[in-house]
Amino acid sequence: QVQLVESGGGLVQPGESLRLSCTAAGFRFSSYGMRWYRQAPGKERELVAGIPSTIGGRTNYADSVKGRFMISRDNAKNTVYLQMNSLKPEDTAVYYCNAINLAWGQGTQVTVSS
């Protein structure tokens, strides 16, 4: 059974950091590009970051998170990460993990508020 499970969300203050994790099961994780999306209340889901299946391949980021967020993967652990630094209130959203053309996670809430 294909499954993606996110974790690591929470409530933080502006300027703080969080690391999201997404652990995969039921498919060959190393063969799939992975993405993180987010959806804020009343807004459409947007792409935050992506990482290809190829080791050393180019990552990509939304302009709004460039220089603050970093996506990485550990194929031995079937896990993709999103390191989020210098968080802002506008980063508040539900964050979703996506295996490209295969599956979505259930989402994890990130709230940035003082």
Please specify the SSE layout and strand pairing.
Layout: E1 3-7, E2 10-12, E3 18-25, E4 34-39, E5 46-51, E6 60-61, E7 69-74, E8 79-84, E9 93-99, E10 103-104, E11 108-112
What distinguishing features does this structure have?
mainly beta; 7-stranded mixed beta sheet; about 0% helix; globular
Description of the molecule:
The chain is mainly β and 114 residues long. Helices cover 0% and strands 49% of the residues. It is built from no helices and eleven strands. The strands form two sheets. Strands 2, 4, 5, 6, 9, 10 and 11 form a seven-stranded mixed beta sheet that branches. Strand 9 and strand 10 form a beta hairpin. It is globular, with a radius of gyration of 13 Å. It starts with a strand and ends with a strand.
Quote the average pLDDT: 96
Structural class: mainly beta
The Rg value, from CA coordinates, equals: 13 Å
Shape: globular
Helix-strand pattern: EEEEEEEEEEE
Question: How do you describe this structure in short?
Answer:
With 114 residues, this protein is an all-beta fold.
